[in-house]
Amino acid sequence: MDMVTKKQVEEVLKTIPDPEIGVSLWDLGLIYEIDIDKKTGSIRILMTLTSIGCPLFDLIASPIREELGKLPGVGHIDVDLTFEPPWSMDRVSEDAKAQLGFV
């Protein structure tokens, strides 16, 4: 059985845009952790949102599960939400800052 890699997961996350901002979840710095269980292929994503009051978690978590589920060897997918540490613009990639007009 093929085992999914962290790099593959990162590449998928780079293709999933934030529904409000249109920049990838990865480039916005919303992804805090990627854990892969080597035995089962289960993936746990620990992420945050740009604000605590953001109502879009389901609109973000669903495409993550859907797209990661297309990778060979993937088992169960958990997308967990945290606000510790709080998200800040410091987490945004240079590419995303350029897309958003901050550079």
List the main descriptive attributes of the protein structure presented here.
103 residues, alpha+beta, GMP Synthetase, Chain A, domain 3, 3-stranded mixed β-sheet, globular
| Widest sheet: strand ordering | 1-2-3
Helical/strand content category: alpha+beta
Query: What is the domain total for the residues?
Result: 1
Summed up, the helix count is: 3
* Portion in helices: 25-40%
Order of H and E elements: HEEHEH
Low-confidence segments: none
Rg value: 14 Å
* Shape-level CATH architecture: 2-Layer Sandwich
Number of strands: 3
The average pLDDT value, as a whole number, equals 94
Q: What is the assigned CATH homologous superfamily?
A: Fe-S cluster assembly (FSCA)
Provide a short characterization of the protein structure:
With 103 residues, this protein is α+β, with helices and mostly antiparallel strands. It has helices spanning 6-13, 57-68, 94-99; strands spanning 31-36, 43-47, 77-81. The chain has one domain: GMP Synthetase, Chain A, domain 3.
